[in-house]
Amino acid sequence: MQEHGYIGRRCDLCGSDANRLLFVKEGYRHVRCARCGLVFVNPISKNHLEGQLSGGTALMGEERLSSSQLSRINRELKKIETFRQNNTFLEIGPGRGWFARSAKNAGWETWVVEVNKAAADALGSLGLDKVIHSPIEEVSLPSGFFDTARLWDVIEHLVSPSRALSVIYSSLRPGGVLRLSTTNFASLSRWINGQDWVYLNGADHIVLFEPATITALLRKVGFNDIQIHTRSFNMRRKRYHPEQELPPRPYILLPFRKFLDELMRFTPYGHQMIVTAAK
């Protein structure tokens, strides 16, 4: 279906065209698949991919990192170090390239895939081993080549996460590992803030995962030994067209925000999912 600049689509996880409406935010219908439970935007803008190619969020973010951000990068590098065998690392959607550059400095042969032309050009100046300007769903990568791949706050933007994960899976060596993060639609933050929650932006975030659905998709592609933990509690609310910050609600929770932020690490209800999956 294509009508008035929008394209209807089936569920990317199970292929069903049966879904029920959850809510509409700024004209974007957020639906839940009636068969597998995946939440996604339907229909999407027919210009979604073109928007990612020319704009999107690839160059957003800090021009300098704080000491805490650098510490997080170093902790993540230590996690992937365990899997170094071929000495090969792949990152999809590296943004400004902070992590990819750190991996290169740590001795990894570092490849990146970036859909945004301006971001890809900027990444080309970082001395990385290979910068591929393309949607990940359309990339041809060497089979069984990479020790580890990273997909950080990217999968929710993709037209076909299943196709993207299949490409990544094929590119990993046996025993190789994918590390990914994405917004948790089943989080306490989303439940409290409703459709005004900051991470619900139908123009960009077109697939919204929960622990059950990201697990099901990874297993469908072939991944195993899937481990998920969640973190953080986020009260931020926003509308995007035009951009408008909204006050947090309910106010009674504000004094407990730091406590809830710490508590989420021990539950499946944090606002961000961090996932490890092996080939």
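(ticket continues) Second input and output from the same batch:
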Amino acid sequence: MVKRVGIVAKSQQESLAPHLAEVAAWLESRGVEPIFDAEAARLAPPTPARRTATRDELSQVADLLLVFGGDGTLLAVADRVSLAGRDLPILGVNFGHLGFLTEINFPELFPLLELAIAGRAAIERRLIMRARVLRAGSRVVEHMAFNDVVITRGALSRIIELSVTVGGEFVARFNADGLIIASPTGSTAYNLSAGGPIVHPAVDALVLTPIAPHTLSNRPVVIPASAPVLVAPTANDPDQEVILTLDGQIGLTLEPGDTVEVSRNETPVRLIKSPSQSYFDILRKKLKWAER
């Protein structure tokens, strides 16, 4: 039974204020405590008894997370929930642009929220990746990535060589601008723009998509998610930058000799699904897929 709902809002989205107040009142009338993150608390009208928490704290104390914003807001929340190791359902309400992950519109929120509080909403489990940077055999960085892990050359750099191993088996050395390792959820993001395939979110797989490879024979490949991926980038120039980007939100410069390890996280992300549209409905509506 849901007793506490964490409410996360996209920053500087002033139009959210009346909606946040309406949701808070609706929850309180049903004996459910709303807990706001800092941005949601700033946007909603203040009350003396309102409880606030950081997004990391919400991942620990809430029974359900409501995310108001776009896909970027939901990506940031999904990462925190996975790092917390909790099997916490997330309901995304679209106040962004594309809204591929935050697929619920505000008018359909309350009937679905009623089902979610009662534990009767349809939930889809989505794979999320755990990315580590290994340096001299030791882990120096670890983050989650819901959409993709991307290794690219710096803005003014030449192509880089990427040695890729999957499940302990050597795959190839790609000479390219970079490499995308995408989850099924992220297959419709950067991966799709780079010519990679669309993968249904129920498929337990990852996609390896070279970015602007230096040969026509390099093509994206779908691999089992159970097999860890190791990528060892090599710059052709000692002054050349190699950049690691996670979900387009976290970026860092790799040092020479660093290896990036990507594996499926044990705890998936749980997204509450819209009862009115399927995954293919969203593909057709948001991406104009299969339209003539």
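Agent notes: The chain has two domains: 4-127+268-287, 129-264. The domain at 129-264 is CATH 2.60.200.30 (Tumour Suppressor Smad4). Closing as not reproducible unless the customer responds.
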